[in-house]
């Protein structure tokens, strides 16, 4: 909201916005024998 007001008051001012995501794979080793990872 504030960025929109400032962009209107200052000529030539621009705003770059980007979004993204990342894939995370969580792996673990069991602490006790006989458990499946």
UniProtKB/TrEMBL annotation:
<dbReference type="InterPro" id="IPR036882">
    <property type="entry name" value="Alba-like_dom_sf"/>
</dbReference>
<comment type="similarity">
    <text>Belongs to the histone-like Alba family.</text>
</comment>
<protein>
    <recommendedName>
        <fullName>DNA/RNA-binding protein Alba-like domain-containing protein</fullName>
    </recommendedName>
</protein>
<dbReference type="GO" id="GO:0003723">
    <property type="term" value="F:RNA binding"/>
</dbReference>
<dbReference type="InterPro" id="IPR051958">
    <property type="entry name" value="Alba-like_NAB"/>
</dbReference>
